[in-house]
Amino acid sequence: MKNGTAQPFARNLLVLDVETTGSDPQLHEVVEIGAVLLEADSLEPVQQFRSFVRPEQFQNADPRALSIHGLSAEKLKTAPSAQEVVSRFVDEFGLDYIFCGWNIAFDTQFLRSLFRKVEKKALFDAIDYHKVDLWSLLELAWVSGLYPQEPKSLADVCQTLHIERSALHNALQDALIAAEVARATIRMFRMWNDENIRFSRPLASDNV
User: Fold this and answer.
1) Is 206 exposed, middle or buried, given 0-12, 13-18 or 19+ CB atoms closer than 10 A?
2) Structural contact between residues 149 and 142, judged by C-beta atoms closer than 8 angstroms
3) What predicted TM-score, i.e. pTM, was given to this entire model?
4) Residue 3 pLDDT more than 80?
5) What are the phi and psi torsion angles at 101 (to 5°)?
6) What fold is seen in the domain 13-195?
7) What is the DSSP string of 125-160?
8) Residues 72-105: tens digit of each pLDDT
């Protein structure tokens, strides 16, 4: 348990990352899913998932989103359908976990839209609605003096924590990176709780 939690999460964590054709789940689509299931106590990975998703309305794609992940209509034309990907996702992970990730609300709203598209919204809604957002945890760590700077982006956090990340996004790679960030963040809080160790940046109240 030295790399995990002081006490287990209520459920395993499913670290999720999606690549999309834009930022609006009503207009844009998921084109890639990456996920890593972390054991509730140790936070060690026990299962991985990666799949492209064949889009149905690629003409609505935002060029800015495409420049991030480099996927195109040509690359995705032989990808599995949304129905196939959702079925495989549920078969492999089931529904008993807590979503976790960097800005996890973005990823889960797109995943929910994907489930709704294939008439599986009831399955998505059966998943625990609680979520572990890594940006929120690190923001709390920063204002508490546990983390040395404001966590403005995942790229900045990777640099601070010395985690390698390639320039071009890949859903599974980013899910694995987010899993590393999750473990590092939990260790940070455990160190503070167990030994009262913190970075040199003081709490505002310490200066009063």
Assistant:
1) exposed
2) yes
3) 0.89
4) no
5) 170, 180
6) Nucleotidyltransferase; domain 5 (3.30.420)
7) HTS---EEEHHHHHHHHHHTTSSSS----HHHHHHH
8) 999 999 999 999 999 999 999 999 999 999 999 9
